[in-house]
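> run fold ATP-dependent zinc metalloprotease FtsH
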Amino acid sequence: MKRKKLIFIVLIISIIMSTILLFDKYYPSPGLSKVKIGDRMAIWAVTIILLIYYVRSNSKPQLVPSVLSSEKVANKERDKSNVSFKDVAGLEEIKEELQETIDFINNSNKYRKMGAKIPKGILFYGPPGTGKTLLAKAVAGETNSIFLYASGSEFVEKYVGVGAKRVRTLFERAKKEAPSIIFIDEIDAIGTKRNLESNNEKDQTLNQLLVEMDGFNTNETVIVIGATNRLDLLDEALLRPGRFDRHIFVGNPNMKAREQILEVHTKNKPLDKSINIIDIAKKTHGLSGAELANIANEAAIIAVRNNKTKISIEEFDAAIERVLAGLEVKNPTVLLKEKKTVSIHEAGHALVAKVLKTEMVQKISIVPRGQALGYVLKFPDEDRYLLTEQELMNKISALLAGRGAEQLVFNEVTTGAKDDLDKATSIAREMVCSYGMSSLGPMVVDEHYIKHNYEMLRVEIKKILDKGYKEALRILEENKDILHHVSNTLMEKETINSEELDDIFKIYEKPMDCAT
Ligand code: ATP
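> ok
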């Protein structure tokens, strides 16, 4: 890199000198007239040679992956991972599963004597930010192995053979410096299913990876860990025994794991005594480890901005809101009429969600954030893994309640429900196509079926959405006073928290019938 920079600087200087000498021919200046024609020619020639060299060196593809490129010369110590299992919160069952692999690397002789083969490939799959890279680094840290990181996309090149060459060099280095862990992130970039129209370069790269994985023998302690968000896209050959034969799902953390992740990421931060990590874990349902780490960091930044010496719950709430709903728009220019529409829309969502108990409403706001003019923050009171048909219907009703409220109050609807419609339609589609919750009966509908029976499926999806919408309208109509009360409070204060919402509901609570 330094050499390239030096050449670039010399090239710029010689271009400037050449240009000055060239113009001197037409506008002679006394100082330069002494430069002989031979010297001038030499400077021009050097400039042209440097220019050609620079252009050519920049267009040449790099034949080694970035982890091995010249600016990252092999440095055993630097490539050692300092992450251990202590830094990975939650994911206990995965750590337990990986323990055997770690033992294999640390005590390989024990296994070899028994004739057991070292597992070559482990595949982590699951949503983004759930700790796949962190786990791979921890395996390297726990075994004191070299950690070689490569992203699938850096093997994808337009020049045929370059990706394959990069795979080869990566494995060569891993074998030379074993024990080592090769981590290939986004492995789907090179490992997707091969088909007739597929691209030659990608196939060559994948073939090379398969060859390399078959190639290393039991004496070389090299483990390849792949990570992907889409296991279903990967080529069968990559997943068969002897290659990536251990598939480990790394999902979003549950309540307990969220608490542990937040503890890891607040360990070195000064927290106010009033902070209860369990409460924060409850409010962050569905978020990934990366998002939780981001919330902890964001809370610290907000505390500094507020000139605080400790991070309090207000900073955490602000950080959660920032991550869930986006950046607050400063000085929004929302028309008064639009503000009223948004307040009715959000009040509708909150009202139906509360009546149907779909989730706990944490906050309602009409302060624009990100692209939304308003939002309702809600979270389930416990982690759920199974949902009943009725619960899915309730979710649809809560999603469509914003549009329903607009219809009920203004007798017209706006474009504000686009995102809600997307989400509600997607739940209804899943109910019909994946969960067998429609009049089509207990069946799964595949792509092929959808293509040829689209109209029938559309009718089923519409039936579900209409039913959910009708229920939302019924609840809104029955609780019209609460709807207006919530909307008016929002117009006045812009936000309402869960306690304030409870108080509004209490005002309209019907007294219990007393037996006479
Ligand atoms: P992607 O699929 O997008 O590559 P990933 O699953 O590899 O994401 P990581 O890069 O491992 O996710 O995680 C990002 C960050 O999130 C980590 O550096 C860490 O700070 C935090 N994190 C995620 N999961 C955990 C966890 N279980 N414990 C502690 N920190 C975590």
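Residues 85-249 form a domain with the Rossmann fold fold (CATH 3.40.50.300).
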